[in-house]
Structure formats: C-alpha cells, structure tokens
Amino acid sequence: MVQQTKRTLLKGTAAAVGAATFAPHLFAAAPVRVGYAMARTGPWTGGAQVSQEPNYLLWAEQQNAAGGLNVKGEKRPIELISSDDRSDIETCVRSYEKLMGSDKVDLVLPPWGSNANFAVAPLANRFGYPFLAPTALSKRLIEMKLPYFFLLLQQPKPMCEALVDMLKANGAKTIAVIYVDDLFGLENYAALKVALQGTGIQMVEDKSYPGGVKDLSPVLRSMKDKNPDAFVGFTYPPDTILASKQAKEIGFNPKYFYASVGTAFQLYRNVMTPAGAEGVLGMGSWNSKTSPGAKAYFDAHTKKFGGKEPDRWASGATWAGLEILTNAVKTHGLDRKAIRDYVANTTHKTILGDIKFVGSENVGTPGTVGQWQKGEFEVVWPAKVATAKLAPKPAW
Amino acid sequence: MTEPPYFLLLMSTTAWLELIASGLITGGIYALVALGLNLQYGLMRILNIAHGEFLMVGAYLTWLVQTQFGISPLLMVPVAFLVLLVLGVVLHFLCFRRLTATSPNLDVFEARGLMVAFGLMFLVQNFVSWLWGGDLRGYDYLTEPVKFGEVQFAANKLLVFFLALLFSGALIVLLRMTLLGKGVRALMQSPIGAQLMGIDTKRLHPLMFGIGLGLSGIAGALLSMAYTITPYMGQPYTVTALIVITLGGFGSMSGALLGGLFLGVIEALGMHFTNPSLKALLSYAVFIAVLLLRPEGLFARKGRKA
User: Fold this and answer.
1) A306: which chain B residues are within 8 Å (Cβ-Cβ)?
2) Chain B from 239 to 298: CB within 8 A of any A CB
3) What is the interface pTM, i.e. ipTM, of the complex?
4) B115-144 per-position pLDDT tens digit
5) Helix residue ranges, H only, chain A
C-alpha cells in the first residue's frame, strides 16, 4: 500500500486547484447519459429527421449551453448516446435493450413512429424508464395501459372528432376517404367512421392503399366523379404530396382537402409552392403564434438547422415532451419512478399549452385541424386554440 | 346481341379514356425506369440490383441544381445522363472488368456481378444519405394540368411519358440500325465470335454499362419532377424494372416499352375497380402468369433481340 504523505497530499491538492483553474470542464459533474435509437436511414427517416431527432439535438445543445441539465439543482451536461435503427423494428428493439439493459443510461428518449413505439414501449416499461413518445398514434398502445408510457400526440379519436366537427359546422354533406393500410391508417379510418355517426355526413367513397404507392390518380378520378364536399386522406408524407399533386393534376377540387402526416411539414409548402398549398387542411396543432415559448422554439430550431423549420404537428409534441422531462428531472433528479409519477400526476405547462395525462393519453391538448394560409400552417379548429380562421380553399 | 358486362356500362367513354391514358402514362414511366436495366441485364447479363440507386442519384443531382441554382430540371436530363455514363464507365473499369476477366463462364459472371451490384447498392444509398441526409425532398416543376377536352393530365407526367417513348425509340433504333448496335448484339450472341470479328469488346462493354447507368440517370432526373425523393427510393424501382423487362423479354427494348405500358394499364384498371391495396397482388399475378405461360417474355420473338 502506498503511504499517503503530507507532501503527496499537498501536491495533489495543488494539481487539482491548478487544473480546476485552467480546465474547469474536467471538474464538471458527471454527464447525464440519455440514450435513443432513431431512423437515420431507411423509410422512416423522412419523418424522424423532421419531427424528432433535430429536437433531441437542439435540446441537448440548449441545456449544455446553459451549463447543463438541472438535476435537482445540480447542473450536469447531457451526453446523447444514439444510434441508427435503420427503420427496422428489430434493430430498434435491440438498441433500446442495450441502452436500458447493459449500458444502463440515465434516461431514454423514444424512437420515431407508431410501429417502433409499439415494439419498444413494453420494454421500456419493464426496465422502468419513463417514455414520453411524441410520434405514436394508436388507441391500442393506450389500451395496453403501460404505466411508464406516455403519448404526447393527440390520438385518432380527438383528431377525427375535431375534423368532423369542423366539417359539420361548415355544412359539408359528403366525404371521400383514402387511408394507408397500416396501423395508423386503419385506426384513423375507424375513428373517422365513429365520429361521422349521427352527423348526417355521408361517406361516398373509401379506399385503402399500400405505403409507397406511386399512382393514386385512378382512385382520385373516381372520387372526383362523385363530387364530395370533403376529401380526407390518412396518409404519410410521400403519399400526402402524391395525393395533393395528383388531385391538382386531374382537377379534383373538393371544398375541403385534408391530408395527414407531412401536410404540416415545410417540405409540403416547398413542393406544392405556397400558392399551391393554400387552403389545404391537415393534421397540425401549433405554430409560432401558439405561445411565446413556441415562437422561441421555432426560431431556435430554424436557426440551428440552417432554415429547416420544425413541422407544425409532431415537432411541437416532441419539444413539449422534452420540456416535461426537463422539469421532471429538475424536481426529482434521475429517480425514474419519481419522474414517472411526476409526469403522470402533473398538469404540465408546455409550448402547446397545458398537457395532462389520463393513463398514457394526453388529454390536455384538444384535437385540432390545421390549414395552409399564405405560407404558414395555421391552427383553424377548434376556436379556443386557433391561430387563424378557416379560409375557403381556392381551386388548385 | 349480347350486352357488355354491367360494370363496363357504368363509366362514360371519357372516363374510360382517362383511366387508360393515366395507365399508359404510369406505364411509360415504368418502361423508362426499365430501359437502363434492360441494357445491362438483358444485353450484358449484369443484374445491376443497384439500378434504382443510380436512378436516385440522377434524381438527387436534378433536385440539387434545381433548388440551389434554379436550373431547369429539363436541362439536367442530359447532364445526369453524362455524369452517370462517366460513373458507369469508371465502375465498370473498377469492378466488372475484373469479373469478366476472371469468371470462367457467363453464369458465374452473372452470380458474381449480382454480388458486386448488391455492394454498390449499399454504398450508393449510404453515400447519398450521408451527403444530403435522409429527408424527403422535392420541388415544383410543370405541375399545371394540361387539358384535352374534358380530360386533363399534369404537364410533367406527359413530358415524362413522351420522353420515355422518345428514349425507348432512340435505343431501339440505335440497337437495330447502327453498327454500334450490331456490335452489341453480336457481343451477346457470342462474345468470342464477336471478338474474332474484330469487335472491340474492351471498349464496347464499359460503354454499354455506362449508357445503362446514364439511362437510369435520365429516369431519375425525370421522376424527380413528379415524385418526392429520398435516398431509399431506389429499391421499388429496381423491382418494377425487373418485372417490366421480364414481361417484355430480356434485352428487348420494344418489349420493355410494351411491357411497361401493359403493366401500367392493368394496374390503373385494377386500382379503379378494386382497391389500390391490391395493386401489388395484381402486378405480381401478371408477372407470375407470364413466367409460367410465356417465360421468354410477352413480346419477345424467339431468336431475335432488340
């Protein structure tokens, strides 16, 4: 054993003081290790790299720039431990298994999309990691009643109710629907059918389509022949754009044209041009006018990513989730059970307004409808959260 | 007199015209996508599974100059062709030249070529993803509809359709009428015989591979006008191209054109009368039926190519 002399102790102290003076980062608190897997390659990338991962990066950067994440009063730097899940559920599950099981990170952030969350949520629950999922939309996930799992996005039922409410209030009588034939499309289609009951709005046509479809014009043409007041598409980004382009192409001009994921993306405005996007409705729940926090977030995001705007739907939910997590860690440290209880039992103030959970579902944010107006995606329904009034859609 | 089936009466002549025309347009796009692969596999036995990836490169080049410099995507069609042609010649020099030299026979060459192409697929896909990110991209070009009486189509789709016809036609003429085409066909009939007749296979092979890649570049440039693009868009196009060249008969350019148009119309009718979700079922049913009943291709005459 080495004898600890006064001299070595003195030397050690001197070295420590010297180092602390010249290289303070060596003495900073241990980092908070935050793990996640995210699609950086493969078909989920388009959604994941718009609505989700940029927010994780921005959050870590902002927190670290402010001295670190506030863990019960102690500022600790955030260390993101992330990997590409290659848009593959198997890889995604394994990555999280490693993060939570062997790396034992302090916190995890969710992956992108309903399917990946469906696979990873039970695992996170088993390991006792609070899981605030911003991009999952599924009634079934809620019915699984996982105590550590929280869904930030409004679910099919409130979203479809808001849409039907708006259509009914504006005198729409007929509606034609297309939906992608996976969990997202099927659940929304089912919710829409329920919401339409007793409203007198008639569904004149409904067709499903496979993801990655390259031509929807035969379907849109037969819809055009039936001349519905409203078109509703439960679609993913490439199909949202395809359906819009082809509706324009064949001159299908219903009074209300609604599409889902991707309508609230900056890409939509770029591809359709602001004039072409004018009046198009879609899933969206916030923009920079929603709250001062939302404006600050929007500006910081656009600045950091060289003009890349957050989308007006799930990006907001991702950021709200990170706000909730930040506050949870501030009051309860990294005690994951305490974080879970805090998330479950608190009404959270976020950029989207008040969020509170019943079971896994966010019941604080109402179902909303968004609309492109003069180059901005405005919330137009319901009135209490609207950033603009519903405007009539000009012909394409 | 027998009456036509009930469902046929439900649609007006205009609606029928519209439906068939939209099927033909999609079919033209299919044919265009298949051109390059047809040249590579049909004529040279390189099953270039990375075909869709090179198409994607063409699409990205077009998107890049359109959004960055505002250059018309139409001008990018020849540029994409040239860039990918050069890339093709280089790739041939680096990979397939060795394979040709070391493979004992055509079957082994085909199997090895397939492996190399798989590697290229991952390389190209990840390179583009690393360079430009995985985001969806797109731009607005010629989306205004063009009216023919009551029927209307997007201008960019019509353009793609006519250029698909043009390039298919040009290739058919090139292969049938020119000395170069004769050389290529001779090469396929008997590589050794062709060499003995003084055909410079060392130059012809890389050139044809390059032209194949160039054609996928053209397809990519044109498709980027009508569709959104991502680094992962390639694979479905490779599959479509394979189906189309099987339908038309390997190596037959006119067959691929007809095969593509046929597939497009079948799909449009199928989607209209059933459901888009059944589209894949329909195309594969046609594919399997052709493989079973006419494995040499729907439009191929035995013993004659191109």
Assistant:
1) none
2) 267-269, 271-272, 275-277, 279-280
3) 0.79
4) 999 999 999 998 998 898 888 888 888 878
5) 6-22, 45-51, 53-65, 89-97, 114-127, 139-143, 156-169, 183-196, 217-226, 237-250, 266-277, 292-304, 314-332, 336-345
